[in-house]
UniProtKB/TrEMBL annotation:
Protein name: diguanylate cyclase
Record-linked PROSITE patterns: GGDEF
Pfam families associated with the record: GGDEF
Cofactor(s) it depends on: Mg(2+)
Domain of life per record: Bacteria
Catalytic activity of the protein: 2 GTP = 3',3'-c-di-GMP + 2 diphosphate
Length: 299
């Protein structure tokens, strides 16, 4: 889910402004005037665009249009500044161990009561921001394989659905490559489970290093990995598979543990869905497994 959408929904923007004004004992037009007078350009380092969405919540108010605001918006600069005011964004530090602050660049010095209101409004905005960040953090944890740092099966499912949608709309094929380690159980049995874990981490990190920016790798489960590749032909896919296999064979660490892998690949075809695409790649993989392992087959 898009983070900005989450924020927008969670602030229930139709009700937000009147609620804010009631809380602060101001009429909507007084509050509007206040925001207007402040001409506050909000710059939240790293989270600027997220915070900007909060501002959009405030924009449909009388007298303040997006273009007005745009004209005043200064991201990362303080050209309008008379008084930069830095306020902590609550609940965020504990989520990702980084301190985040919102910087309000003001065109006039605030009176004490304006400052109090700004701080109160800020707390209201950042509560929503905290929720959005908590959601983002949870989503990250739910889609990441904790051992290897690759996307997990759930991330793979999401990415595959996205890729299929793109391929169907734009008639642009892509490739699915399924990689399964050979005799991995022997590594666990011989060197122990921890060493088995190290092997998985090593392979995942090599894979990440090998792929181009537009390609993605996932741990599908156990000793099986998947890649979604920007390949449009069997030839390109075969090259990618050969590159991966060649690279793994160069690793002394993996050679000492007799690690090889089998790969099955396929290219998207019109009318494919996730099931048909995956089945083809999986069948190709099992052809390799059934004919001596350590090879590549395409379907
Ligand atoms: N160390 C470690 N082992 C795991 C993990 N997940 C699954 N395994 C082990 O991976 C092994 C996979 O075994 P199999 O599916 O028989 O695969 P294989 O030994 O590679 O056999 P082939 O695929 O036929 O070559 C099992 O022993 C699992 O216990 C993990 O996170 N860490």
């Amino acid at each position: 889910m898009d983070l900005s959408t989450t924020i927008y929904d969670s602030t229930q923007h139709d009700n937000f402004y009147p609620a804010a004004s009631a809380d602060h004992g101001l009429s909507v037009s007084e509050l509007t005037a206040f925001i207007n007078d402040l001409m506050a350009t909000l710059v939240l380092e790293e989270l600027g665009s997220i915070y900007f969405n909060h501002l959009q919540v405030l924009l449909p108010i009388e007298g303040l249009s997006l273009s007005d605001f745009d004209a005043r918006w200064v991201y990362g600069r303080a050209s309008l500044t008379s008084v930069p005011l830095e306020l902590p964004v609550n609940n965020v530090a504990s989520l990702d161990e980084q301190a985040h602050n919102a910087y309000y660049y003001l065109t006039q010095t605030l009176t004490m009561s304006q400052r109090t209101i700004l701080v109160q409004l800020h707390d209201m905005f950042t509560k929503q921001l905290g929720h959005a960040l908590a959601y983002r953090q949870l989503h990250k944890m739910a889609t990441k394989d904790m051992l290897t740092g690759l996307g997990n099966r759930s991330a793979f499912d999401e990415a595959l659905t996205r890729q299929l949608g793109w391929a169907q709309r734009h008639h642009e094929p892509f490739a699915l490559l399924v990689i399964d380690l050979d005799n991995f159980k022997t590594v666990n049995d011989t060197w122990g489970h921890r060493e088995g874990d190290n092997v998985l981490v090593t392979i995942a990190s090599q894979l990440k290093g090998l792929l181009r920016d537009e390609d993605e790798a996932f741990r599908f489960g156990g000793d099986e990995l998947c890649c979604l590749l920007d390949c449009q032909s069997q030839q390109q896919l075969a090259c990618a598979a050969a590159r991966i296999q060649h690279n793994l064979k160069q690793s002394d660490y993996l050679n000492k543990r007799h690690i090889t892998c089998s790969l099955g690949g396929t290219i998207y075809r019109a009318n494919d869905d996730a099931g048909s695409l995956f089945d083809r790649a999986d069948k190709a993989l099992y052809k390799v497994k059934n004919s001596g392992k350590c090879g590549y087959h395409a379907a």
